Please model this.
Amino acid sequence: MLKQNLEILENAEQSHILTREEIVSLLADDTINQDLFDTADRVRHKYVGDEVHLRALIEFTNICKRNCLYCGIRKGNKNVQRYRLSKEQILDFAQKAVNYGYKTIVLQGGEDAFFTAEILADIIREIKKNNVAVTLSIGELETKEYELLKNAGADRFLLRIETTDKRLYEELDPYMSHENRLRCLDDLRRFGYEVGSGCLVGLPNQTLESLADDVLFFQKIDADMIGIGPFIPNEDTPLKDAKGGDFYQALKVMAITRILLPNINIPATTAMETLNKNGRIIALQSGANVVMPNVTEGEYRQFYALYPGKICINDTPEDCKNCISGKIASIGRTISTELGFRQKMID
Ligand code: SAM
Ligand code: FES
Model:
């Protein structure tokens, strides 16, 4: 182990500052991994405590006008059965999630033109009657659409930058621009959303320097939530032969993010559990404090096929709630009964 890397970690635990070179040095040194995960776990405990926030995820449409090269529900994939939930189905799943005790409903989907901001605003207003938080994860919209959805009651928005490497982003996301992604994140902040972003780890031609830039970007925009997942190649996409991301590399990027942004919300992502059967629990012990159980019912789960091996596709929402609750209790953590907004800094 590079002694220097231990010192870097010790300093960062106090200062929450790392340079680009220091992040690269930590990412390149796998002998430091356990120390890094333990440091992130201590920072998590100190700043956001031992409660885990559960967010109920509804995957409400897999229809998408985009063609991101890595994504299984990209427009060009003819092998996926497409679906779009009705307003009634979405509200039914949301109501059941509320009854299960979830305090946040996350509406995630492809960029599906059917769901205009007006239609979504109606759905959000209905869900908000239950005194829960609403998170949206529906991609790039016009400024006025973000405004309308915020006014309808949406609290948070997840929009991963995917990679801050502009050239790589524009190669992997045809007809999309890095500048527009930044404009969206800026709009979300201005309208008062809690802003979530994040990146994929293990994209083709992604470097350690570029991953370091991603983490520094999250700190620069003072993100409220960061979701980090390994890229998992999907055989129905142009990146089917790519190598894909490594579980521990993704975990390291997540842990470094926790150290630099001590009080934010960080999910233990589904993609992590796909690569490691205990992935979400390991993530919860390496800096994460959020889990997003799927509450979509029936066959839709399997059609929302971003990547192969996605967990829980044959489970019911009840199975998922019981499973994750048991796992969280088994590591001595508790499930939050609060809405789970970003904690105020205490340091
Ligand atoms: N359309 C919305 C958007 O683009 O933000 C939300 C849905 S999109 C499918 C959600 C996330 O899935 C993306 O931000 C991306 O990081 C992730 N994702 C897509 N394909 C993936 C893959 N092959 N492996 C891992 N994660 C993937
Ligand atoms: Fe649209 Fe993935 S390409 S959600």
Q: What stands out?
A: Strands lie at 51-54, 56-61, 104-109, 133-137, 156-158, 194-201, 225-230, 290-291, 334-335. The CA atoms of residues 5 and 82 lie 48 Å apart. The pocket of FE2/S2 (inorganic) cluster (ligand 2) is lined by residues 64, 66, 68, 71, 73-74, 110-111 (CB under 6 Å).
